[in-house]
Amino acid sequence: MVPAPDPSTLRQQLSLGQPLFWLNPAYEPAAPPAELHDILAAESRLQRCAPLLARLFPELATDQGLIESPLLAVPALQQALSLPGTLLLKADHDLPIAGSVKARGGFHEVLCHAESLALAAGILHSIDDDYLKLAGPDARALFAQHLLGVASTGNLGLSIGVIGAALGFDTCVHMSSDAKEWKKQRLRNFGVRVIEHASDYSAAVAAGRADTEANPMGYFVDDENSPRLFYGYAVAALRLQTQLQQAGVTVDADHPLMVYIPCGVGGAPGGICFGLKQVFGSAVHCFFAEPAQAPCVLLGVQDPGIPSVYDAGLTCSTEADGLAVGLASEWVCTRIRSLLSGVYTVSDASLYRDLYRLQDTEQVAIEPSAAAGIQGPARLLQREGSDYLRAQGLESRLEQATQIIWTTGGRLVPHEEYKKFLEKGKIASNETLTD
Ligand SMILES: Cc1ncc(COP(=O)(O)O)c(C=O)c1O
């Protein structure tokens, strides 16, 4: 493995708030022992709830209630970035209903909760029962007595809020100060209660947790500490495996797969990374992308004490609202510590530049947080990235490699907001950036 900078040098580098590429010294290239059980259970739950989702959201009827996104070829982007091998885009920015990577995990957790309440109340007799009963009057009356709480920088709130309200839960979303106004308004339009906090994400989670747990009928979806979210997110790996097979893409030691995922508290990218390592073992290499001012998962994976970005002298302030998290999920960091290849950090200006580049080359519209993966493949060819390629024996395999940029949100962005993003992106495209 590549020698890692000692922790104090790393802290010093991080505190400058400049983009950097960190290779994880705890990464274990050998395939991890298979732990597919929980992911398969989540996939089965989403499958048995699919008819229910198609009933609740007519938009899902053509996909029989499955929440999934396409895997796209992006030849014009690949050419613009001068990349070898095959470049693909996992288009979670286009996930139906919730419009972000937080959809699979969020829907999975709320469906888990609804299922267990309905089983306990005798509305469902077993998991083989007719799940359309969960959209019926008895289930709605039951769920209306229960509070569903969550804290969010925006997109998890959209996911939980929409499914919670559709099932009839008393749904309350605690939004951190970074959350965008249009996301709050969209939730209010669905009848969700939105509580605005002037604080950052971690403080909003603490307030939301306390508020929800004070209610005896309350259930808090805890993004800092939730196996139900995590394994729901991980289902993406099974779906991607099928999509790659359908596209005729081989993944093995000679045909490596590199994946670049924007990261906030760590749940969604952590679940995906965990799932991908179960499915593809040592043939897949996962990199997370975090804002230069908010690399909380880098800090949390590197140091089991889970320091915050404030401890590292950073501000947590970023225009990437979905990634504006000061403290990583310890639960997630523990699970991915030996699975994650590395983390690179990005400037806000580069997010706008890359958002613009994706529109310009492929006519794909995303939100700023979702652009963090785009520069991953190019960063892997430079400096510390190329050290990784050398250390893993990947240099000679780049032509037969597949690289996947995970675009994680954007479908629901109002047109006027998106136009502003593009204007900023056009300006950033003419700036000289270090990343
Ligand atoms: C667009 C987008 N990308 C990535 C993420 C990162 O997910 P996580 O916070 O689970 O790390 C988020 C989180 O809200 C998001 O909204």
Model description:
This protein has 435 residues and is of the alpha/beta class. It has 2 domains: 7-51 and 67-99 and 230-429, Rossmann fold; 103-227, Rossmann fold (3-Layer(aba) Sandwich), CATH 3.40.50.1100. The chain contains 17 helices and 11 strands. A 7-stranded mixed beta sheet has the order 1-10-9-8-11-3-2, sandwiched between helices. It has a 4-stranded parallel beta sheet with strand order 6-5-4-7, sandwiched between helices. The chain is globular, with a radius of gyration of 21 Å. It binds pyridoxal-5'-phosphate (PLP). Pyridoxal-5'-phosphate binds at residues 100-102, 153, 155-156, 262-269, 322-323, 367, 369-370, 408-409.
Characteristics of this structure?
Rossmann fold, four-stranded parallel beta sheet, alpha/beta, seven-stranded mixed beta sheet, globular, 435 residues, 17 helices
Which percent band covers the strand fraction? 5-15%
Structural class: alpha/beta
Rg from Cα: 21 Å
Gross morphology is globular
Give the arrangement of secondary structure elements:
Blueprint: H1 7-15, E1 21-23, H2 37-48, H3 50-56, E2 71-73, H4 75-81, E3 86-91, H5 102-120, H6 137-144, E4 147-152, H7 155-167, E5 170-175, H8 181-189, E6 193-196, H9 201-213, E7 218-221, H10 227-246, E8 257-262, H11 267-280, E9 284-291, H12 296-302, H13 330-336, E10 342-346, H14 348-362, H15 376-380, H16 383-391, E11 402-407, H17 415-429
Parallel strand pairs: 3-11, 4-5, 4-7, 5-6, 8-9, 8-11, 9-10
Antiparallel strand pairs: 1-10, 2-3
Helix pairs in contact: 2-10, 4-14, 5-7, 5-10, 7-8, 10-11, 11-13, 14-17
The structure holds pyridoxal-5'-phosphate.
